[in-house]
Amino acid sequence: MLKNVASGLQSGAHRIDRTSAQEPECTEGAHEGESEIGAALPCPLAAPGGYDRRAGPPQADEHDSNKTDASPNQGRAGVLQQPVKETSKVRNLLLSFIGFLVLFHGAQVAAQELKIGFVSTERVFREAVPAVEAMKRLEKEFKPREDEIKKITEQARVIQLQLEKEGMTMSASERRTSESELGRLSRERQRLEREFREELNLRKNEELAAVLQRANKVIQEIAEKEKFDLILQEAVYRSPRVDITDKVIKALSGK
């Protein structure tokens, strides 16, 4: 038995020396005529990636490298994700379009239901009976002062004509007297005209303010009666369909 053990040790050592230079082949069990110690070595462990760790990593194939560099969207997961993104974009666009239609329709409905009117204040001041009566009162009130201005203006005109015709034949004292009187009349006329304009504008604003107050009251009554939502007194453009100035003037004339 000792002979068999020694023979097996020698055979196993010889086989190990031989496999150090040549890759051993995988065997499932011991060859015939060999002892258990000299049995064939097991298969070398394969490193991750399917190559022998002792032999080193395999050379990369150009064709395989092209496959590796391919876009991930070509894989199964990428193919599934792309249609999902496209569907999401289409859905968002559809929802945005529907929202726009709803808002546009709502704006049209609101515009149709909103009732708007327009009143020309200029026409009210010019044509309404209270405004016409106010202007007549002002004319009557300021007529005496207007006549006084006209009288002074006429006196100054007469002296100016006299100086133009007889200035060369007048004495120096007469000419100085006429020129002094002409200057006084001119200054008096300017003063009266300035005071006249200031006081007339003041009284006119007072009368028109009273007319406007009455007109606003009438406009408010018309708006409540005819269910107006908005009535404007100034506008760059207005349609005759929304102009209610005639109604206001007629209402003011009846009061």
Task: Outline the fold blueprint.
Elements: H1 2-21, E1 46-47, E2 51-52, H2 62-68, H3 76-113, E3 116-118, H4 121-127, H5 129-166, H6 172-226, E4 230-232, H7 245-253
Parallel strand pairs: 3-4
Antiparallel strand pairs: 1-2
Model description:
This protein is mainly alpha-helical and 255 residues long. 68% of the residues lie in helices and 4% in strands. It contains 7 helices and 4 strands; from the N terminus they run αββααβαααβα. It has helices spanning 2-21, 62-68, 76-113, 121-127, 129-166, 172-226, 245-253; strands at 46-47, 51-52, 116-118, 230-232. The strands form 2 sheets. It has a two-stranded antiparallel sheet. A two-stranded parallel sheet has the order 3-4. Helix 5 (129-166) runs antiparallel to helix 6 (172-226).
Shape: elongated
User: What is the helix fraction of residues, given as a range?
Assistant: 55-70%
Q: State the strand order across the main sheet.
A: 1-2
Radius of gyration: 58 Å
Number of strands: 4
N-to-C SSE string, H for helix and E for strand = HEEHHEHHHEH
Q: β content, as a range?
A: under 5%
Q: What do the pLDDT scores average to?
A: 74
Tally of helical segments: 7
CA(first)-CA(last) distance? 148 Å
Low-confidence runs: 1-7, 16-55, 60-80
**Structural class, from secondary structure content?**
mainly alpha
Task: Tell me the major beta sheet.
Answer: 2 strands, antiparallel
